[in-house]
Every structure is written in C-alpha cells, then in structure tokens.
Design goal:
Number of domains: 2
Order of helices and strands: HEEHEEEEEEEH
Shape: globular
Helix content: 25-40%
Number of strands: 9
Number of helices: 3
Largest sheet: 9 strands, antiparallel
Mean pLDDT: 86
Radius of gyration: 21 Å
Low-confidence stretches: 1-14
Strand content: 25-35%
Distance between the termini: 73 Å
Bound molecules: zinc ion
Length: about 180
C-alpha cells in the first residue's frame, strides 16, 4: 500500500515535470511575432533564442520573450513569462543588436566584434558590472543609466577614431 502510494506520487511528479513547455519568440518592428519552437527544457529554449538573436542585425526586431506554458491548462493562468528583452541600438557599435532585460538589469550586444555587456553584480546587488570584450574593458557603476553612458563613451571614442558600425574595429582607443 505504502509502495503503491509512493509509486503514484512519483509518477504524478514526473507528469508535472513534463507538462511544462518553454516557448521562445521574437517580435519584429511591424508587430509580427515569430515563434521559435516549443521546447521541453529551459536550457534548449535559451540556446535557440540566443542563437536566433545573433542574427538580429539582419532583421528589425524590437523584443524577445521566453514563456513557460503549462500544458492542458486553459487560459492565461497557464502562462508564465520567464524573460522579456528589448532590442535597442547598441551604445557602442550603434547597431540594433543590444538586448536589454530591465527586470534583471542585464544587457548584451549580439553584434559581431562588439558584445558590449552589462550585468548586475552577483556579489554586490545594485552594482552594475559592464564590459567591452574587444579592449577587455571592465568597469562598475551604481546604476544601469551610468552603465549605459559608460558604454556610450566607448562608442563615442570609436566614432572619433573613425570606426563605423559595419566595419571591424581596427583601431581601438587606448585608455
Ligand atoms: Zn554593439
């Protein structure tokens, strides 16, 4: 009897675990939403979404969403938004490839040879880490606005050095 209950409990847990699906999508400037598939794990859904937004310089995207759906549940109750990101012009390379998540204070440029990023410090909440990999630039600020303006400064220096968005960064300003 006890064994039977245990068995029931286990299969119920298993069913709960498999009745959620992860659905990434992106939205174009004209409001059109492109579904990227339905996945059984969060990891795969993220992988698919990250892969897709690498192409964002070729498209006019405004946002991305990663949503969990509970299978067989009617209506919006079955839906949980896991992440929403907005696509903006990158403060460094100026391409429309800068994905920003205002909920988690994180941002990343998916433009080739740029990859400017901002992330809230895991050690000090409220502190923003930011960086620009091509020069190994790293800095901390106490707000996302300041982090964005630090990146904009790098963009201004690049522009002054004669780089345009679609070129590789050939001359990189020194500190
Ligand atoms: Zn960029």
């Amino acid at each position: 009897m006890v064994e039977g209950l245990k068995g029931f409990h286990h299969s119920a847990t298993f069913m709960t675990a498999t009745s959620r699906v992860f659905v990434p999508s992106v939205t174009e400037e004209n409001g059109n939403t492109i579904g990227l598939g339905v996945f059984s794990t969060e990891e795969t859904a993220w992988k698919v979404l990250r892969q897709f937004i690498k192409k964002s310089h070729l498209m006019s995207l405004t946002r991305s969403d990663l949503v969990i759906w509970e299978v067989d549940l009617i209506g919006e109750e079955g839906m949980t938004v896991l992440s929403s990101m907005h696509c903006r012009d990158c403060p460094v390379c100026k391409r429309r490839t800068f994905w920003i998540d205002l909920e988690t204070f994180s941002a990343m440029c998916t433009g080739q040879a740029c990859e400017a990023w901002i992330e809230e410090s895991t050690l000090e909440p409220g502190i923003m880490d930011l960086g620009w990999p091509p020069t190994r630039f790293l800095k901390q600020t106490d707000s996302i606005e300041k982090a964005l303006s630090e990146l904009a400064d790098i963009g201004a220096q690049l522009e002054a050095a004669g780089n345009t968005p679609n070129q590789a960064f050939t001359s990189i300003p020194e500190e």
